[in-house]
Design goal:
single chain; 851 residues; alpha+beta; Rossmann fold; Dna Ligase, domain 1; D-amino Acid Aminotransferase, Chain A, domain 1; 4 domains; ten-stranded mixed beta sheet; nine-stranded mixed beta sheet; 30 helices; elongated
Length: 851
């Protein structure tokens, strides 16, 4: 027998085998039917024949309809849960196909059943398009079915393009007809006529009169909306129905837009109306969940509008955001042919190794024509207003996982021709999608046990808050607000009053540790209270650059603050900055008469003479009260000529903190007894008594003497030590800022390179010029809080501060024992075994001690 004949397989119907020249190994067979019972009638002879030939048979069960096949020792039944979502379901099918191997025969439940779980025709098409090629590759034969007139033409077209056989099955009266629509790689003169199935025979309907009679009796339907749109339209119709029907529609939309049961869902159910959800759906591009960042922003605004009433609601700036549904991300992956690579990347072996390849591909993919049209409509709506494309993944900004700064946000200054603006927007979307494969994001998901979680990426598209000032666009102020101030530097600070991390201009400086620049830390119990840096040198530790969007250059820019403050800001510039008289006098004495007036951005008038700090304090307190949890927000504010203002809440998420802990009794140091360090205030992490197994100390002078490349090498060594000491209580002590991007200011580690230590200290070293930055509220500090890493800033030389590095330098350096082969770093990195050493902190007395 020839190989060709050997590869032919019977449908179990002799006459139909003759019509289509039998099945071939590799064929996917899709039956378009009016009912699942009709599909079952075609499955039965196929399975009977396969059993006679001792084929390996697998029945994939996921639907709510009656089983297509009865239980049998000859058939393996695999039940999968489609409710877990597209990615989990598709991955489970992929693993099943991989496990069963070559030449396995499959029968799948009706694919239309997936609408019950996914509410999206597009996602059913995506599932078929990623599963069908793999089945073909392994020489399997698989039977599928879809219900006629239940799907869009686009979905059917996608299935037709991918499958090997697409067969229409009709029942008229007592007769069953099969009409082949596609039979790949074979042909006969009568193949594409309808055929009457009579027992084992298949009689071709070739006469025009018979064919016309048959087809005129078949209801083919009209072009259908995507099932998603049908569902939203039904929900809109429910607005006129009784409350019970409205409640059902609201619950369904909640599950489609917000997600499964969670604390966030409970809050959304409490504050969102059916009208609110329909408004969200009307501004969604594509289908699927809108993600954590979008939900957090919308929920916070709803709480403030409803519960804030006259106190807060009048101060809120309106928003008109758009949402790109999570299903668009999957469609992007599938239609560009990356699904198989994505599946391999999700495995333990490929998790990090395949991410760079996938990331590079994701920066260059194409979108379907329907999504391109919706993107263009979105851009037409915003016109030439600057917009920002922000990640809004399913796991983001929820209770337990903040993902602070792990994924990209991309500004689109949005200037130029429609074509140029479109291309810039699409590239921004690609960039955010690709950021899912960032090493920090991957490490974060891995460390938090989320590697196998379904991490879909929705997007939030926001109009940038602000106005035109000359050729720059920016808000007057922006920042981060926390309802609980976990970083307290003196006993009088009320932790529960909250704090702000405030900047002039765009808020990028508020969430990132900006090189060579500082932000304003505001304690909301006393907004004018100076921070430790303010007290030392107000100008040195103030903001000197302003992040803006340059309309002329169509790109982000960071001009000097003194230059920007000369613009007409359409409000009182004294709200944000005071003239630096000392510097002005010095410049005048030196003869620099044409220099811009020097300013110090201190927000003194803003904090003393406006309602702004009081409104922010009440806003944070209200959100925290409703959340029953500390919260973290990102915001902007814009002022009018008469110094009135509006606040735009861009983001809100639970502040991931472990709380203060129980009060700690600190030991007294005996006569002549020394310690590693002690201080008043300047720590974060609550009350602790932490045993320290290892202290890792970066020696400032030796570090300073290294080249820039050498400093980066030290940072990479810290990452290896972080892994080597995992499971131990390690204290990490270094000069200046941990996590800086500029080695001259500290050690440029990624957070994933210190995520397993128990505590970190940033030491001010005057001799080396290193200074900690009070960066509470930045993404780096969000990571510390969320991971439960204790933080302390040691301002060596200040009154009340003791720091004795010899306490650990006097002990043997364990570097080579902890990390063999790292001896060349021994002059910079000193690791001491510190069995018996403990770190103590007490919030009430603001006392810090390590001995």
């Amino acid at each position: 027998m020839s190989t060709e004949m050997h590869d032919k397989v019977s449908t179990g119907l002799t006459g139909f085998d003759q019509v289509i020249d039998k099945l071939r190994l590799g064929d996917n067979v899709v039956w378009q039917v009016d009912s699942v019972l009709h599909y079952a009638s075609m499955v039965e002879p196929f399975v009977t024949q396969a059993k006679l030939e001792h084929r390996k048979l697998v029945y994939v069960r996921f639907g709510s309809h009656e089983p297509i096949l009865e239980e049998s020792p000859d058939i393996e039944v695999v039940t999968l849960d489609a409710q877990k979502g597209f990615e989990s379901f598709a991955a489970a099918v992929h693993l099943l196909i991989e496990r069963e191997g070559r030449r396995t025969f499959y029968v799948f439940d009706c694919l239309t059943e997936l609408l019950e779980y996914w509410y999206s025709d597009a996602m059913i098409g995506n599932f078929f398009n990623v599963s069908c090629p793999y089945l073909y590759e392994l020489d399997t034969i698989a039977y599928f079915s879809i219900i006629r007139n239940a799907h869009t033409y686009a979905t059917i077209a996608g299935i037709r393009e991918t499958t090997q056989l697409l067969l229409d099955l009709y029942q008229l009266g007592d007769h069953m007809y099969v009409h082949p629509l596609k039979v790949w790689n074979r042909y006969s003169p009568s193949m594409f006529f309808p055929h009457l199935i009579q027992g084992q025979e298949a009689v071709s309907i070739t006469a025009s009169a018979q064919a016309a009679e048959l087809f005129s009796a078949i209801h083919r339907g009209v072009e259908r909306l995507d099932f998603w749109d049908v569902t939203v339209n039904k929900a809109r119709e429910a607005l006129t129905l009784e409350p019970e029907r409205q409640s059902e529609a609201k619950g369904l939309l909640m599950s489609l837009l917000v997600g499964p049961a969670s604390r966030m869902l409970e809050l959304c159910e409490r504050f969102f109306t059916l009208e609110d959800l329909l408004a969200i759906a009307s501004r969604e591009v594509g289908t699927g969940l809108i993600g954590g960042k979008s939900i957090g922003m919308l929920l916070a605004r709803k709480i403030l509008e409803r519960e804030g009433q006259d106190r807060i609601a009048p101060y809120l700036e309106p928003h008109d955001s758009y949402y790109i549904g999570a299903d668009v991300f999957y469609t992007y992956m599938v239609q560009n042919g990356w699904w198989k690579l994505r599946a391999k990347q999700r495995t333990q072996e490929g998790y990090f190794t395949l991410a760079p390849e996938l990331q590079e591909k994701m920066k260059q993919g194409k979108f379907s024509e329907s999504i391109r049209r919706r993107f263009m409509q979105l851009l037409e709506y915003f016109g030439q207003s600057p917009i920002i494309v922000r990640s809004s993944s399913l796991l983001e900004d929820n209770f337990g996982n903040a993902f602070a700064g792990k994924y990209e946000s991309v500004f689109c200054v949005n200037q130029g021709t429609p074509e140029e603006r479109y291309e810039a927007f699409v590239q921004a979307v690609r960039t955010v999608y690709a950021s899912m494969m960032n090493e920090d994001a991957l490490a974060y998901r891995l460390n938090r046990g989320l590697r196998e979680k379904d991490e879909q990426m929705a997007l939030l598209v926001q109009r940038v808050s602000g106005d035109h000032y000359r050729d720059a666009y920016f808000p007057h102020i922006a920042g981060v607000g926390n309802s609980s101030n976990l970083y307290v530097w003196e006993p009088g600070v009320d932790m529960e009053a909250g704090m702000l991390r405030l900047v002039f201009g765009l808020g990028t400086r508020a969430v990132d540790r900006t090189v060579g620049d500082y932000v304003k830390i505001v304690t909301l119990d006393n907004p004018l209270r100076p921070s430790p840096m303010d007290a030392e040198d107000l100008r040195k530790f103030s903001q000197r650059g302003v992040d803006v969007l340059s309309l002329k250059d169509n790109a982000p820019a960071s001009p000097k603050a003194d230059d920007v403050l000369t613009y007409d800001l359409k409000t009182d510039r004294a709200l944000f900055a005071s003239v630096d008289k000392a510097t002005a006098d010095r410049l005048r004495e030196l003869g620099y008469k044409d220099r811009p007036v020097p300013y110090i951005i201190n927000f003194h008038r803003l904090l003393k003479h406006t309602e702004f700090p009081g409104v922010m304090k009440d806003m944070l307190a209200l959100l925290s009260s409703v959340y029953e949890y500390p919260v973290d927000i990102e915001f902007t504010a814009n002022f009018t000529r008469d110094n009135q203002f509006k606040v735009n809440v861009l983001q809100c998420r639970p502040l991931q903190t472990r709380g203060l802990g129980q009060p700690v009794e600190l030991p007294e140091l005996g006569e002549g007894e020394t310690c590693l360090f002690s201080a008043k205030g300047s720590f974060m992490g609550g009350n602790v008594r932490l045993p320290v197994d290892y202290a890792v100390y970066i020696q400032p002078r030796a570090y300073l003497e290294r080249t820039e490349q050498g400093k980066y090498a030290v940072a990479r060594q810290i990452g290896k030590i972080n892994q080597a000491l995992r499971g131990k209580n390690a204290l990490l002590i270094g000069p200046g800022r941990w996590g800086t991007t500029m080695p001259s200011l500290g050690v440029p580690v990624h957070f994933s390179e210190l995520c397993h230590v128990s505590a970190i200290c940033e030491v001010a070293s005057e001799e080396a010029g290193f200074t900690p930055e009070l960066s509470y509220g930045s993404h780096f500090f969000q990571d510390l809080v969320e991971t439960g890493i204790f933080y302390a800033a040691i301002f060596d030389g200040r009154p009340g501060v003791e720091f004795h590095p010899e306490y650990i330098l006097g002990r043997e350096n364990q570097l080579s024992a902890v990390l063999p082969g790292s001896e060349k770093f021994a002059d910079v990195i000193h690791i001491a075994r510190t069995d018996g050493m403990e770190l103590y902190s007490d919030i009430v007395t603001q006392t810090l001690l390590c001995r």
